[in-house]
Amino acid sequence: MKTESRYTKGQWFCEENNTHIFCGNGTVGVAWGDGDAAISNAKLMASAPELLEALMAVVESWDNGTIPCEAKKKAARAAIAKADGK
Question: N or C: which end of the chain has fewer CB within 10 A?
């Protein structure tokens, strides 16, 4: 059963060394923390929609009794890398 997500749609991002998370021309959040932790928190928050999408795709495969395909694994790995600031 797939439900419609209610978070702000679009590409979330944070600029280098910035703790604000943007979507389009608007701010969707601000990360807090000390120094590098705040920047890492912003990167993690900015990746949230992609992490959610990747996780939902993997769970959908499992629910259908299949193993996630390589494209879903690649999307999940890319979302994890973005969250980790890579």
Answer: N
